[in-house]
Design a protein that fits this description.
- The chain has eight helices and 14 strands.
- The protein has 258 residues and is α/β, with parallel strands linked by helices.
- Helix 7 runs parallel beside helix 8.
- The structure holds zinc ion (ZN) (2 copies).
- One zinc ion binds next to loops.
């Protein structure tokens, strides 16, 4: 399994894209920074997008990717998310008020986007992978995804979340955990309130992970709050040292092979 981090940041700037992952070139998770990261040929290979939640920084490239798919290569994308997420994204981005109605364009029979609801705790075969969505703890309904390939490699991506997701750990056994740290420890209380991790809050969850599973996988941190990147990097390094674990910050175009 080849994992590429397309976007690793909370805010978009030159060189910093919004959250998106790409698995084996074909399966995208979250749609914050897909089209600005990939060539037309690379975008064309994407058949499926999984959304963790509806926030704009995770969904807006549904529009730009659907536009490219319908104008450049007449392709179709399957989009999976919670029913709640789809019910927000549809009237806010996709149904023609903001731009083109990609649920009916280029044609009602073959639209650029096909939306399908997923249910937490139910394994589903999607795009050749075993996909398991598990509830995350964010300011809006959100899920994380375990993606397992046919050769048994798996990653878990929490999406945006804060403490309180340790129930997830008993359901998964990933070789790679991709999660978030949005701000520094000094803003921990506020981050928890708005559904994000600081390094210290992440440490609590990773400690639970190790207690439940007996190991800690490699951990990559994304959704990095750009203004605090240096502080976050130092604080994450501190946690890695305390837990004696492999925890590091992700970055745009980082590639990991499982
Ligand atoms: Zn969010
Ligand atoms: Zn976000």
């Amino acid at each position: 399994m080849k994992v590429r981090i397309l976007g690793a940041h909370q805010f978009e700037l030159k060189g910093a894209r919004l959250t998106s992952l790409l698995i084996d070139g074909t399966l995208a998770i979250d749609a914050g920074g897909i089209t600005s990261a990939l060539s037309q040929t690379q975008q064309k290979k994407i058949k499926t997008v999984l959304l963790t939640h509806h926030h704009f920084d995770h969904t807006r490239d549904l529009v730009t990717l659907a536009a490219n798919a319908s104008y450049y290569w007449q392709g179709q994308l399957e989009v999976y998310a919670l029913r709640y997420t789809l019910d927000v994204v549809t009237p806010c981005l996709l149904d023609g008020k903001m731009y083109v109605n990609f649920l009916e364009y280029p044609s009602k029979e073959e639209p650029a986007l096909l939306l399908e609801a997923i249910e937490p705790y139910k394994r589903k075969a999607i795009a050749g992978y075993d996909v398991l969505a598990l509830p995350a703890k964010h300011s809006v309904p959100a899920v994380g995804y375990q993606i397992t390939s046919s050769d048994g490699k798996s990653l878990f991506y929490t999406g945006d979340t804060t403490v309180g997701i340790s129930d997830c750990w008993q359901h998964i056994s990933p070789q790679l955990l991709i999660t978030e740290v949005t701000g520094p420890n000094k803003r921990g209380d506020w981050l928890e309130k708005v559904g994000h991790f600081s390094a210290r809050l992440l440490k609590e969850e990773l400690t639970q992970f190790r207690r439940v599973k007996g190991y800690l996988p490699r951990v990559i941190v994304i959704h990095i709050g750009n203004p605090f990147e240096r502080e976050i990097k130092e604080e994450v390094a501190q946690v890695a040292q305390e837990l004696e674990a492999d925890i590091s910050l992700g970055y745009e175009d980082m590639k990991v092979t499982l």
